[in-house]
Amino acid sequence: MQAVGSDNVVEENVVALEIRKVSHALGAEVIGADLSKPLDDRTFQQIRSAFLEHCMLLFREQALTREQFIAFSRRFGDLDLNEARPAETKVEGIPELMLVVSRPKPDGAPATGRYFGADWHTDNSHLPVAAAVTLLRAIELPEVGGDTMFANMYRAYEMLSDGMKKLLEPLYGVHMLSRAVYDLSTPERAAESWRRFPAAAHPAVRVHPESGRKALYVNDQVRLFVGMTAAESRSLLRYLSEQAVDQHNVYRHRWRKNDLVMWDNRCVLHRALADYDRTQVRHMERTTVHGTTSGYSYQGPAE
Length: 303
Ligand code: SIN
Known about the structure:
Strand order of the largest sheet: 3-4-5-15-7-17-6
Order of helices and strands: EEEEHEHEEEHHEHEEEEHEEEEE
Bound molecules: succinic acid
Number of helices: 6
Structural class: alpha+beta
Shape: globular
Number of strands: 18
Oligomer: single chain
Radius of gyration: 20 Å
């Protein structure tokens, strides 16, 4: 935005934003931004630094068109085109947009099938280039429930003892798609399994490429550590997961229509709560910003 100053010089009118924390552990609300309009660079930099500091941002009352939502998302980097996603999550002609929708059956019976994103996870971590940022808008919500939870993985790492930090430092966790069944019994079946359900190994402790801070990078989709069996890895994974999502380390977001929430997948876990009436619609729209390479494609033992 531009305005004429008192000395008749056209000057940039930087929007004054208020950044208000939404919980002790993470997250902040940005007040005063209108994301339907292009943001000047200084306003965008305020948002970007609040994002790096708080790891999750909330913008209320953003009645955006899909094009405006994508334009804002693009400010954070290249967007995922959702090529490997199922047809029902796609929107014709807008490959950057992903639908996260639970809708009752045409006769009004409850939706069946899995609730999307109900495990604690970080987006696209089954790929070597996992997601950096996810942006999610609430389009239509159930009367109650369907909240999203977030956990701060910087704090999860910082809460560990020096001994545990040292143990985790060289480990790589294998991130697999939840509920995927890997048949590795013959080379042909294994090749088919890896094609359908790609997996990636990422460091258990990740250095955030922008902040330089260390974050714990394990979640419910990590099945094992490279070089260990799933059974050997299980107790350690369970311990780390429980610590990470401890009540002192989370924020629970109660959605309102036209909320836009964005989170940093490099230092935040999230899950969608499967606690709403499935005769009602929950319609969210998402964009996903590509990250940098932090892992490698994994095709080793699954148990
Ligand atoms: C997701 O896991 O990306 C979606 C979260 C949600 O629907 O609340």
